[in-house]
Write a structure and sequence with these properties.
Blueprint lengths: L1 H5 L4 H8 L6 H23 L3 H14 L2 H14 L4 E9 L2 H13 L4 E6 L9 H12 L3 E7 L4 H4 L2 H9 L2 E5 L4 H6 L10 E4 L3 E5 L21 E5 L1 H18 L18 E8 L7 H16 L3 H9 L2 E2 L2 E2 L4 E7 L1
Parallel strand pairs: 2-3, 3-4, 8-11
Antiparallel strand pairs: 1-7, 1-8, 2-5, 5-6, 6-7, 9-10
Helix pairs in contact: 5-12, 6-7, 7-9
Length: 333
């Protein structure tokens, strides 16, 4: 906006191309179709046989959350439409080597489909177990779909490893392709930064690790990178499946809605979690507002009864108490 004031004739043009998240006509239409499918899916869920059970579960989850958490969950749901769900098991990985070894084991056990979505993929020592597992899974008949950002993973997409994945039967697709037409009809700086893996719709991975070693060769001067990724089992993995299905549709026009189900629920898995997926189709500043609300909740909880109860229960999330862990999972585009 400062450029608009200082250079009034040039500034507005620069702001139009770089200041607003405008989309090409094709992509805007695809986003509208995705939003329509989400609305129809919610209507189908509301009229299905399990609707009552979901309402009961939703009520039970709201009873578990404290006031600040309920506010955050409601705000997140208004942005992306997904409510917090219980019956999950969550494990956190910090080291890339351990993470991708676990991913490879889960892919080796897959029997239906494996969905992989990353901003950056590199062929290095840490990521190779995942690539080998994907190739083996595809060869035994598991449907493997891999979506990589065309700019963030540009070197990888032209690499021998990418060719080997395709030869093995992995469906490797570029997200938000770059090139002359892309520069002309869409913002090249709008990228897909998600880092998601979903296996058989029951196991999910989501976090900040790219598909690369901790040293991260493309930006080695900033290494080591400090990241965290969650492995989730339960219905929240199904919500990650929704995110992948939507992004896959945007790039391929292939509908995967039939793969989005309820997700397994187990009382033995006590964690409550919620997926919040944002991008250029959500309202502007949605994620900054969400983060600001979480900061305010954290500050407020330090002087409320909620924080005192949290100190007694030994279980905290978003700065306030709960009888079960709660985790807002942010995945941005």
């Amino acid at each position: 906006m400062l450029v608009c004031v200082i250079v009034p004739f040039i500034g507005p043009s620069v702001y139009w191309f770089l200041g607003k998240p405008w989309l090409s006509a094709r992509r805007a239409k695809a986003y509208r179709q995705v939003a329509q499918e989400r609305a129809e899916a919610r209507r189908r869920e509301a009229s299905s046989g399990g609707a009552l059970a979901r309402r009961v579960m939703g009520h039970e989850i709201r009873e578990v959350l404290c006031a600040e958490q309920r506010h955050l969950a409601a705000q997140a749901a208004t942005i992306a439409g997904d409510e917090p769900v219980g019956g999950n098991e969550i494990a956190v990985f910090e080291e890339a080597d351990e993470l991708f070894e676990a991913v490879a084991r889960d892919i080796d056990a897959a029997d239906k489909h494996v969905h992989v979505l990353y901003y950056i993929a590199l062929d290095d020592e840490a990521s190779r177990p995942v690539f080998r597992a994907l190739e083996a899974a595809a060869r035994r008949g598991v449907r493997c779909r891999m979506l990589l950002d065309a700019l963030g993973s540009r070197p990888f997409l032209a690499s021998p490893r990418a060719a080997e994945l395709r030869a093995a039967g992995v469906e490797l697709v570029e997200a938000l392709p770059v090139g002359f037409l892309r520069r002309r009809f869409g913002r090249i700086d709008l990228r897909n930064h998600r880092k998601i893996i979903v296996i058989d719709g029951a196991i999910g991975y989501v976090g900040s690790h790219n598909l690369a070693a901790r040293e991260f060769k493309v930006k080695a001067r900033y290494s080591p990178w400090i990241d965290a990724t969650m492995r989730v089992i339960g219905p929240v993995a199904n919500d990650l499946q929704k995110v992948f299905a939507e992004d896959w549709y945007l790039e391929t026009d292939e509908e995967l809605w039939s793969l989005v189900g309820e997700g397994p629920v187990s009382e033995a898995r006590p964690a409550i979690a919620q997926v919040l997926a944002t991008g250029p189709a959500t309202y502007e500043s949605a994620m900054p507002q969400m983060i600001l609300s979480m900061v305010h909740a954290r500050v407020a909880s330090s002087s409320t009864d909620c924080s005192r109860r949290a100190s007694r229960s030994g279980s905290t999330a978003a700065g306030c108490c709960t009888r079960r862990p709660w985790s807002p999972m942010d995945r941005r585009a």
